[in-house]
Write a structure and sequence with these properties.
Blueprint (H helix, E strand, L loop, with lengths): L1 H21 L35 E4 L1 E6 L2 E6 L3 E8 L5 E7 L10 E6 L2 E3 L1 E4 L2 E6 L6 E9 L5 E8 L2
């Protein structure tokens, strides 16, 4: 009984406190926006150069970026680099890496490519390196380890359908 009386008294005091505060006009201490002062807005601007890769694909490890006359280029930092692809459909595709200098024709730039299931077939022609991605890679993020015989700049990474 005493506990209930205490709860009723505390509730009544809380209600009286709220009612007492409702009769006054609110006091404005610092206006957020008014006609006498311009609003203070802090902004920051930075130009971002997005990597030349398909959405969802990430150059994960071992890549260096540089701005060239034709835009953003990327290059392997050492002999091994990795890229992570997003595989949504169970179909064969190609990872295409386009070289900045197409005059390197005839030189084997990419020594090997390895996926989760083992070695991947690599072909080079017309300033592009094509890595065959089989249909059984499975959905989700697929890491591809690339081993380069020579370090060159690439200007584009793309995924294409099988020919």
């Amino acid at each position: 009984m005493a506990g209930m009386r205490r709860t009723v008294i505390l509730g009544a005091c809380s209600i009286l406190g709220l009612i007492q505060g409702c009769g006054r006009a609110p006091a404005i201490e610092v206006p957020l926006v008014d006609s006498d002062h311009p609003p203070i807005v802090l902004t920051e601007r930075r130009v971002l150069a997005l990597p030349n890769s398909p959405p969802g694909t990430r150059l994960v490890r071992g890549w260096r970026f540089a701005t060239t006359g034709s835009g953003l280029a990327f290059q392997p930092e050492g002999p091994r680099s990795s890229i992570e692809l997003v595989q949504l459909a169970h179909r064969e595709r190609f990872l295409i890496l386009e070289r900045r200098d197409p005059d390197l024709e005839g030189r084997d730039i990419l020594a090997s490519a390895r996926g989760p299931a083992g070695e991947l077939r690599v072909s080079e022609s017309d300033g592009e390196i094509a890595v065959r991605l089989p249909s059984d890679l499975g959905p989700g993020r697929v890491p591809i380890e690339l081993e380069f015989a020579e370090s060159v700049f690439f200007i584009r990474a793309a995924l294409s359908g099988a020919a």
